[in-house]
Amino acid sequence: MDAVCDIPGIGLAVDRSLVPDPTLDPAADAGVREATAVLAGGCFWCVEAVFRELDGVIGVTSGYSGGDAASANYERVCSGMTDHAEAVAVRFDPQRISYGRLLKVFFAVAHDPTQVDRQGNDRGRQYRSVVFHLDDVQREVAEAYIRQLDAANVFNAPIATRVVPLAEFHDAERHHQNYAALHPEQAYIAAVSAPKVAKLRKQFGDWLRSDGSKDGGLA
To answer: Is the residue at 142 inside a domain?
Structure first.
């Protein structure tokens, strides 16, 4: 169990291998080769590290969503006094990985969606769980998947993830990008990010990149 992000009695109630695929996951039009998912699930260093591993992901950017441009900086967001959540913008090729599959990784590996305004010892509204949808299809897929997971009792508590329209995404400061790969020795990365990536590799090995760029080659 991760000492920082897991809380006894909360989180998955089933083995990660039993988390179902989304029932609603429409295929993108054949000509669409790039789309974006914006997701908030606690510290963006850790969430970014998970999604950078996936085949079909073109780029991952850490940033802030939910508040205004004036307050979109790390110091202010970490104060918990803004409307921002730490988030990641995942650019992906929907011909290679679907939006629904990204959500499956988000819920099964990247964070614990049952926690409210926190992830483990990281506490505050900036660590809340949010799917920021870019269109009605993303909203419908996310809302349907949350209902599906709750109905299947996949977690030990109701999913607290909010599904809200994306107003703006503000890139985080340069030194926060690809932070986990660039600072593997950092204590927080070793305690929180590395175990998440290990879980992903164990459970979703056939979804991983094979081009060697997972540690920094992405945009």
So the answer is: yes
Number of domains in the chain: 1
pTM: 0.93
CATH number of residue 147's parent domain? 3.30.1060.10
What's the pLDDT score for residue 217?
A: 44
CB 185 within 8 A of CB 64: no
Residue 214 falls within a domain, yes or no?
no
> Could you tell me how many residues make up the chain?
219
Task: Give the active site residue among 5, 43, 46, 78.
Answer: 43
**CB-based burial, 8-44: b 16+ in 10 Å, e otherwise:** eeebbeeeeeebeebeebeebeeeeeebbbbbbbbbb
Quote the CA–CA distance of 186 and 128 in Å, as a whole number.
Answer: 23
* Catalytic (active site) residue 43: yes
Task: Find all residues with CB under 8 Å of 157, minimum gap 6, and list them.
Answer: 10, 114
With a cut of 70, list the residues of the chain below it in pLDDT.
Answer: 1-10, 212-219
Closest CA to 121 of 48, 46, 61, 197: 46
